[in-house]
Amino acid sequence: MNSNVQSLKTFLGSAARLALVEVAGTKGSTPREKGAFMLVSSAEIFGTIGGGQLEYMAIDKARRMVAPSGGSNRLRSTSRIKADEVCASLDVPLGPEIGQCCGGRVEVLIRLVNAALAAELVAAAEAEEAQLPHVYIFGGGHVGQALASTVALLPVHCVVIETRAEALEGMPETIETRLTPMPEAEVRAAPAGTAFAILTHDHALDFLIVAEALKRGDAAYVGMIGSKTKKATFRNWFLKSADGADAEFARLVSPIGGAAIRDKRPPVIAALAAAEIMTALIVHNAASNSVHHAPQGNAMAG
Questions:
Q1: What would the pLDDT profile of 277-298 be if each residue is shown by its tens digit?
Q2: At what angle do helices 203-214 and 228-241 cross, to 10 degrees?
Q3: Which of 21, 157, 279, 280 has the most CB atoms in a 10 Å sphere around its CB?
Q4: H or E segment at 242?
Q5: What's residue 77's pLDDT?
């Protein structure tokens, strides 16, 4: 498994001179938020501050900083720049003058990367990675492969769980894979707030995994691939044989990806399901933060 932290470390070691381009401040509507960053070498970039002309301007300045003798100054007169050998800043209005119509304003700080700054970036990335929400995909078939490839692009920690070794071959390098004869046990050990997507090759196995997931009151999402008939069959089994409750069953999303678009091609199902899962994770996280930060009531004196 190749994580974002590993990719960052690799890029930091890829060139003798690198520049950090960071959004230091924003006003109004902007492509990225304060703290968004990218790294720039003479030939490559890592990350983004939102694209468009703003990013091109920042890359141009960063590359002239990592290679001071090269390049011409193509910055427009609408930006202010203060620069020395190791640091520069841009204050850019996002208007028609630079071909962007966001309407806001962005302050960008550009610094040459030294050992201390590199260590700071790695530490921040490790802390962020440790807080990523988890997505567990059960099943590495056609839809499982497509969903894993889609989810691999998102800011989550994705785990694909299978009973068949061959079904785990070809997974994206940023995806964790687990081979186990008892996938339902992985549900019990999953972190709080995990999203579970169940799409194995065996309906009976799907039912066991879904039952375990629905009994996790802290799950952000429980989705099962299938039809109305499969969902109805599961409900009957869940309520009569698995000691399930209607309130638990009501949390099941099936079919995954919704029923508005009737397209059964794996990449389409994967795209719809990934959007559904990401939405559920964001809503769950917001709800959890709201509970944790809710003010405590004062006891009344008698």
A1: 999 999 999 988 776 555 554 4
A2: 60
A3: 21
A4: none
A5: 36
Q: How far apart are CA 4 and CA 10, in angstroms?
A: 10
Backbone angles phi, psi at 246, to 5 degrees: -60, -35
How many whole angstroms separate alpha carbon 32 and alpha carbon 187?
35
The CA dihedral of 59, 60, 61, 64, to the nearest 10 degrees, is 120
> Of all residues in the chain, what percent are helix, strand and coil, respectively (each to 5)?
40, 20, 40
Q: Return d(Cα 148, Cα 256) in angstroms, integer.
A: 14
Per DSSP, the residues of 219-259 read -SEEEE---HHHHHHHHHHHHHHS---HHHHTTEE-STT-S
Q: Which residues contact 47 (CB under 8 A, 6 or more apart)?
A: 36, 37, 38, 39
Measure the CA–CA gap between 57 and 38, rounded to whole angstroms: 13
Residue with tokens 């030939």: 43
CB neighbours of 70 closer than 8 A, spacing ≥ 6? Answer: 63, 64
Could you tell me which of 224, 211, 204 has the C-alpha nearest to residue 185? 211
What angle, rounded to 10 degrees, do the helices at 4-12 and 115-130 form?
170
